[in-house]
Give the backbone structure.
Amino acid sequence: MSLDTVSIAKNTPDNKQPFAELGLKPDEYARIKEILGRRPTSSELAMYSVMWSEHCSYKSSKVHLKQFGEKAPHSDALLVGIGENAGVVDVGQGYAVTFKIESHNHPSFVEPYQGAATGVGGIVRDILTMGARPIAVMDPLRFGPADAPDTRRVLPGIVAGVGGYGNCLGLPNIGGEIVFDETYAGNPLVNALCIGVMKHSDIKLAKAAGAGNLVVLFGAKTGGDGIGGVSVLASETFGAGGSTKRPSVQVGDPFVEKILIECSLEIFAEDLVVGIQDLGGAGLSCATSELASGGSGGMKVALDRVPLRDPSLSPEEILMSESQERMCAIVEPEKLSRFLEICKKWDVTVTAIGEVTDGDRLEITWNGEVIVDVPPRTVAHEGPVYNRPFTQPAYIDLVNSQKVNVMIPNTSEEVRAAVLKLAGAPNLADKSWVTSQYDKYVQGNTIQSQPDDSGMVRIDEKTHLGVAISTDANANWSYLNPYEGAKLALAEAARNIATAGARPLAVTNCLNFGSPEDPGVMWQFAESVRGLADGCLEMGLPVTGGNVSFYNQTGSVAILPTPVIGVLGVIQDVRTRTPMSFSSAGLDLYLLGDTFADLAGSEWAFLHGERIGQTPTADLAREMRLIELLLAGHSAKIFSAAHDLSQGGLSAGLTEMVLRYSIGATVSLNEVGIGLLSESPGRVVVAIEPNKLEILTQLTSKYSTTLTKLGTTGGDSLVINDCVISLDDLRIAHTSTFPRLFG
Amino acid sequence: MRIGVITFPGTLDDRDAARAVTHGGAEAVALWHADADLKGVDAVILPGGFSYGDYLRCGAISRFAPVMNLVIEAAEKGMPVLGICNGFQVLCESHLLPGALTRNSDLHFLCRDQEIEIISNTTAWTTSFNVGDKITIPLKNGEGSFQCDNKTLAQLEGEGRVIARYVGENPNGSRNLIAGISNARGNVVGLMPHPEHAIDRLTGPSAQGLGFFTSILNAMVK
């Protein structure tokens, strides 16, 4: 193919261009011509097509996501909000914490190991780009039915990929989720979250400022991998015979990323960059246009200077390549030599490929010929915006009008069978088979990790300051009522860090949905965003950033609406955290919160094939009182243990608690069936020493929260009324599921 | 007492090892793989990680790092050297210790709290323990299965050079449940599990790993 330059484009306005094959609609192509006043060159077409893809431009979601800004609560903690690579919050003592979650769903179905691995790699670079040292990762994962043959291909590969990459980077994996549902068959969800820490003064932004400053590319060489991968893959629905648009998934090299992290942190420490951006989806197209757009707009890049792994790549391919482990920095000329020295120390390839200019155009040349000349904002930030039609799908009224009708255990035998069934259900069973493949110890600061309610890491060894984070989604609830579902997921994530004694501070989200071109799916999305924005406003928690993943569907079957919500909080002294379970006998167990007959969307209903009824209504005022109660109790040091109740209700909660330190419990319940199986939100089980009851009573009264005595700890069984289940039997039920399914 | 902690490209547990050294009461000195300089340290730790990405074979490239020539020379003269996990693999590749670490028998990376039994307390790194002590420290690796030929195994066992064994089910297929070994002189020790991740109850399963880092002080005082 001959080189297509700007001057050729001007002289050949009628050349046919493959815009449709690149995923652009005719009106989008027309708009590019209007912006440029001519047809785009093939390189410009490549850039616009990847940057205007759903994945990079958020063109279908933007109109809804702006609610996170419009409804943003006042927050003193927010240092960097939505729009940068990741949000940054103030956690005190001069520390800033950055965290974000992203999806890598489609590549992980095509090639589970590399898809998951590069998902971790990408989010870690986003965090690094903010100037932070990455300190932990988490991975909420969703799969097709646990016993489906393809799940046995996808799950082990994804888990090995998450571990293979994260372990090699030296990042502790401190939690996540693993959920199975048939709608995820063919559309597994791989969401990856990373947390980083820095001092306030070290925050870096993606902007190319200062004419004459250099554009420096460093890290891995550029190859042909993942060309159009993220952008095209993430924007096309998988369907029968739809294999033509499944190009190679990116291949990760965690060793190179580890070196890149250390090299970058050394560069940051010496204050050698003006702005920085990682190369992720849409590669150089994204990095150059976003950096230029973040600055005054002018930038010149000599594309032929980009170091190549495959010298046969065309300029269009170099612009679209999604080769991993690359960063792009803006460096003042006088600091370049020191920058190069540090790269040399770490054996990192580094090349100055261009400079910031006074103008407002991004100009890219190839051997001296101009192949790109565009206003960068039109590429990076002013892409198409769609106000896609959305209507409440017909199933909503149908499922909401029905009532869950499943067997409710009552006799001792029935209770025993139900508790053991839930303990071993794939969604609730022990996940050690997975988490033992992740390094949770590296860096020596992990305070909590799976199976605790939240992950917690220490960020200062002297003051013991720490952060906790939890990710949650209840897709069954979101399916029945996406508005309430999003609010409930937010409340659950916040509760999960408050049980340990951490105060919720800020929110990130990864919104996984089917095709936005389906008005019903679009309604689920719109309702979820509305619910989350309303919830965040009410709870006073700002959304710091996030990610949208559409087109998670096979044929006409979309995944359950799955908004994964991450809440980050701060704890002043990690040594005082409240553990999720009790390690001694003779404690009293109490339930905080109210239990209703909430079986709609519950695990018990799911196990009986029922996804009907009405999602509980989120009462966030009550949730916030419960959080304050948990924090006050933590400060007063009255809790020996606190554990959130969610999927699987009290049955799952007690199972997890008694098995954690092998201390049994004896509880009595009035309505044993509903008491064990209901998933009413806003509930926590706490263990206290008997002499702490007075303080607890004062607190529950102060925060208007229902307090119910459940029983006591001790023994080697879980005793529920007259039903006795030995811890050995319970442990076998809980721990044998994953090894049986996945070997 | 100054203990060097070597950082290779891809080393991960260097800061953890340095923290453990400090907790044990010594001064940690950072050593860089490319420097032919041991900075006058009294002992050296090769920490865990994936040096050079563990491409080719774990530890196979690190043994050629400039700093390793000095470590090998010093070890042969009696300087205490502890290799943890990837460091153990480097010591085997450097022939300071016999045998090799191969992929775990179930082919998965495995991270878990592992009970081990101290078999020898006469090495530079194990004097704080009693023989028969059972301690729980993290095990985390993909290639932790200790293998060697029968003659070497008989020699290790016969000379009391197995310093720690896994308790209970074999986690990775290591011969004779071997978790760690020493050289004949007892100054060079390789250990697959991670004592540096068990120096306090807050961040580890126990504080029992600290014994390795206090042992070295005893060795020096003598």
Q: What stands out?
A: The helical segments of chain B are 14-24, 66-76, 86-93, 150-158, 210-221. The mean pLDDT of chain B is 96.
